[in-house]
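for the recovery benchmark. tokens below, seq after
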């Protein structure tokens, strides 16, 4: 006679309202988060969908909090994603020319604000190494030093590289950046350890990031405004009482970043600006080949003459 089967819900421990949140019981529970989670979802789920549902149930029963659940969901998604899914495409890569003079190299580093750069020789696709921004200081102290001597080996990975495997390699070899190549061996893009981690924990904030609920347009002390690149054009029109329209009437754009990039004819760089509808949009910060923040001010007579 076979043993009666047990459903997943029957095997999970009960979490009654009388014990949940009791500080005495929480103090007595010495199990780690992983141990409690494993006990909660025993027996193991048969599919990824069931695992996702189990994590949702675990959050509902206060086994894990919402932040942990989002992170675990990201870990699950990671195994389904490849380097090609999150890379910065080759045309948007910030790269340095090995034959450029020191002043040009320094200007490129300051303009983009990255800490490491792919370096090419001849054609942009011919990546010969990685230059750390801090290593440029060595050239200032020793001008006769060759830039090639400062280059570090570039790591190349295929577009099909699984993100979980790539993260393991990043941690193992302490590389923070890899060049992504396509099936024909051509440079397809660039991926960093930050790109991979953001798939798990969400976007990693920097000094230009603000929370979504803090708005996308706000005033600065000098009576100018900071405007997010993904702000809807309608919102910009309403905020500044203007009518922003593309020079090509057949084109349609949803965000101010898309409109400005189209009008400029290229991916905007930090420090560049564009004047439209009596407003000057100065690029403050870019990330992943897109404008994150503009500084917006009225176009003055001095600006028009510049």
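predicted aa per position
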């Amino acid at each position: 006679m076979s043993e009666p089967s047990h459903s997943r819900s029957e095997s999970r421990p009960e979490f009654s309202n009388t014990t949940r949140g009791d500080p005495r019981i929480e103090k007595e529970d010495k199990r780690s988060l992983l141990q409690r989670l494993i006990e909660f979802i025993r027996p193991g789920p048969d599919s990824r969908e069931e695992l996702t549902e189990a994590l949702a149930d675990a959050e509902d029963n206060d086994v894990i909090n919402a932040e942990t659940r989002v992170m675990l969901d990201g870990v699950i998604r990671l195994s389904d994603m490849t380097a090609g899914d999150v890379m910065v495409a080759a045309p948007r890569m910030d790269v340095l020319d090995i034959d450029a003079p020191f002043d040009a190299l320094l200007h490129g580093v300051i303009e983009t604000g990255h800490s490491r750069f792919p370096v090419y020789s001849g054609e942009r696709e011919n990546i010969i190494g990685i230059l750390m921004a801090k290593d440029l200081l060595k050239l200032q102290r020793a001008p006769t030093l060759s830039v090639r001597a400062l280059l570090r080996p570039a790591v190349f990975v295929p577009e099909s590289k699984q993100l979980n495997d790539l993260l393991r390699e990043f941690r193992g070899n302490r590389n923070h950046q890899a060049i992504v190549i396509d099936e024909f061996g051509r440079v397809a893009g660039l991926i960093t350890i930050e790109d991979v981690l953001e798939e798990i924990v969400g976007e990693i904030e920097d000094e230009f990031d603000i929370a979504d609920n803090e708005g996308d347009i706000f005033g600065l002390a000098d009576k100018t405004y900071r405007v997010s690149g993904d702000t809807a054009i309608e919102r910009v029109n309403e905020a500044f009482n203007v009518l922003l329209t593309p020079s090509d009437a057949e084109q349609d754009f949803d965000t101010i970043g898309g409109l400005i990039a189209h009008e400029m004819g290229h991916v905007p760089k930090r420090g560049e600006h564009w004047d439209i509808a009596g407003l000057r949009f100065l690029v403050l910060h870019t990330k992943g080949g897109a404008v994150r923040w503009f500084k917006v001010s009225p176009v003055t007579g001095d600006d028009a003459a510049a």
